[in-house]
Specification:
binds flavin-adenine dinucleotide, FAD/NAD(P)-binding domain, alpha/beta, 5-stranded parallel β-sheet, 2 domains, 7-stranded mixed β-sheet
Length: about 300
């Protein structure tokens, strides 16, 4: 089994992990960043809202970051999957799918989340091309177009009102759920938003571009774009469980300040901590965690190096 020893192992190479790697590399910490290259946002063609990189392809943003970080000899990248993390004396020991064993003083978990899509036939074909989750990420490009909102539950009216900010040509599809109250229906109606509670048979799209929503009663409703009200997400990896860290109600891991956790030396940042962070928010968290972790290591080294 191949073995490596570094100051910091980072599991996950999205904006949070990459940003932490940059700070730590500049702080002269040896870093191994392991990423299995299956990011949550890979389905979209463009990412928005990241200063100086608005409209960039998701993988291009990562590629540029890796090119810049590679200038720092302290940081190394591996394409692999971290499968387990345990304590080995004062160090952590991580094992990867390819059989690499990594000993490190500290570990940053930046493994992100995966989305659970509603069970609507044809939705997966259009997801990321004409149907999205986050209006702040993708709403501007679809403004004023015929729009669908797919969802149920108590926050549905609130979510519809957010999407209404980008398009007033809006139909809410509850896909067979008929739990909207009379007041909620009235509120949507007062804003010109039609509600369709009939179950959906499927979505028709061409090359991912939505054409219509077909209902189980045979009716076909023309729509060009859609947003899904959050239908849940789950952790990409459950590594912190192995060190006793628990999930919060929103599915993110429990942390203290700066992403530090109850397990000393283990940090969780980005979507793995928050459920949804945004690219620039995740990068900010990586920076903050990198500084906090390096400050801790400086303090440890400072105390150990006292001359007798
Ligand atoms: C469809 C969609 C579109 C979006 N568009 C935008 C947008 O336009 N603007 C915006 O600001 N935000 C957008 N977001 C949100 C944004 O993508 C996330 O908030 C952000 O990527 C979180 O960064 P992260 O570093 O925490 O996780 P991620 O970017 O998800 O990165 C996690 C990485 O960890 C890797 N990984 C997972 N498990 C392991 C393991 N065991 N070992 C090794 N590697 C592992 C994954 O493969 C992945 O590469 C979008 C999200 C979605 C779902």
């Amino acid at each position: 089994m191949a073995t490596r020893k570094v100051d910091v192992l980072i599991a996950g190479g999205g904006p949070s992990g990459l940003s932490a790697a940059l700070v730590l590399g500049r702080a002269r910490r040896s870093v191994l960043l392991i990423d299995d290259e299956k990011p949550r946002n890979a389905v979209v063609r463009q990412s928005h809202g990241f200063l100086t990189r608005d409209g960039i392809e998701p993988m291009k943003l990562r590629q540029l970051a890796r090119e810049q970080i590679s200038q720092y000899d302290y940081v190394h990248f591996e394409q692999d999957c971290v499968e387990s993390i345990e304590k080995a004396g004062k160090l952590f020991l991580a094992s990867t799918r390819s059989g690499l064993a990594v000993y490190s003083r500290k570990v940053i978990i930046a493994t992100g989340m995966k989305d659970d899509l509603p069970d609507i036939p044809g939705l997966a074909d259009a997801y990321g091309k004409s149907i999205f989750m986050c209006p702040y990420c993708d709403g501007y490009e679809l403004q004023s177009r015929p729009m669908a909102v797919f969802g149920q539950g108590e926050n549905l009216v609130k979510f519809a009102s957010v999407i209404w900010n980008w398009s007033k040509d809006l139909i809410v599809f509850t896909n067979g759920d008929d739990h909207l109250s009379a007041n909620q229906k009235k509120e949507l109606d007062e804003h010109g938003i039609r509600i369709i509670e009939t179950a959906i048979a499927g979505l028709m799209s061409e090359k991912g571009m939505l054409k219509s929503v077909v209902l189980k009663n045979g009716e076909e409703i023309q729509r060009e774009f859609g947003f899904i009200k959050n239908s849940g997400q789950h952790q990409s990896a459950r590594l912190p469980d192995q060190l006793g860290i628990r999930l919060k109600n929103n599915g993110g891991y429990e942390t203290l300040r700066h992403g530090l956790t109850e397990a000393a030396g283990l940090l969780v940042i980005g979507d793995a901590k928050n459920a949804f962070t945004s690219l620039i928010g995740a990068a900010g968290e990586g920076y903050e965690a990198g500084v906090a972790l390096n400050d801790d290591m400086i303090q440890e080294d400072w105390e150990k190096s006292v001359k007798p």
